[in-house]
# Entry
Amino acid sequence: MSLFRILKSYWETLTRPSRYFSLAFLTMGGFIAGIIFWGGFNTALEITNTEKFCISCHEMRDNVYAELKSTIHYTNRSGVRATCPDCHVPHNWTDKIARKMQASKEVWGKIFGTISTREKFLEKRFELASHEWARLEANDSLECRNCHDFTYMDFTQQSPRAADHHERLLGTGEKTCIDCHKGIAHQLPDMAQKN
# Structure
């Protein structure tokens, strides 16, 4: 069979209606629909990755966001500010999707009001913080390291104690950021619940 006949056969398959539409039309339609879906999905993903979205529910705005405002992550001499997604959502796309799936439990909590008042929030605070600490320990404090890179730390600008800990512990991989810096951006829960 000649190359011309093979190409002609493929062309006829592509342009012949399957029932009502040609395969080429269905393929192009699927491609365009895929682009629209992907664009819509990423747009929705980015909207949910903003501080404005995070604090749109009063549980976050009145509790953890209010605490963040008094920390160096919110206001500092350099003017660089960490927002909710910077610390709680990984930057890598696959890790981000996995985190969004985990966060769907928070929607459940919102619907059923498990932390709808300050009292309920404080009651569950240790449990919520423990989940977040475990996540950060498991990923070697990935979100912290998106901004704070061990290899660029200037130990001469740190207190002797901090410099010693960073050199000894972080450099060896023995510890991760969250091991020492729990409560750096939010108040610590009642640690008596730990036992």
